[in-house]
Each structure stands twice: as C-alpha cells, then as structure tokens.
Amino acid sequence: xxxxxxxxxxxxxxxxxxxxxxxxxxxxxxxxxxxxxxxxxxxxxxxxxxxxxxxxxxxxxxxxxxxxxxxxxxxxxxxxxxxxxxxxxxxxxxxxxxxxxxxxxxxxxxx
Length: 111
Fold this sequence. Notes:
mainly alpha, 4 helices, 81% helix
C-alpha cells in the first residue's frame, strides 16, 4: 500500500525539508544558523530589558520588536527558492531566536 499524497503529507515533507536544510549541509551553513539563533536569543532577551528602562512600557517595546520581525517575515516570503541564501538563513534564525526570547520572557513574568 502506497502513501497517499494528502495536504498533511505535503506539509510534513516541506517541514522536513525546512529543518533538514538547517541541520544538514556544509559546516558554514549549520554554524551560521546556530550562531544567528543564539545571537537572536541574546538580543531578544537583552533588548526588552534595555528598552524597557528607556521607554518604560514593556508592551510597547515588545509590540515594536514583533512588528519589525514580522516585516522581515513578509520580506522573506517574497524569496521563492528551495535553497535560501546564507543571509536569509541567518535572518530567519535570528528572528526565531528573538521571538523565542520574548515568549520566554512573557512566561517568566507570568503574563
């Protein structure tokens, strides 16, 4: 019995291809992706605290950060290729790390 080509199966194949490009391949691609992820987490956790002291309103700071990151998502969605350039891989991993830091900060605060 063969596997049927359902929408969920296509989604799983695309998801597997996305993660395999980050985990497999040349060392330059893997290390740049990991470094960008860690730098994004570092910036996301520090910028919320830094700009909180400057502005004084945490929701406004987080809103502006998420707005900038969503603009990056819109720009990235215009790139249609199977293999993204290294710059887009770094920007995407930076975005993921930053959003993860903001979400972790929200869980720590209990809000």
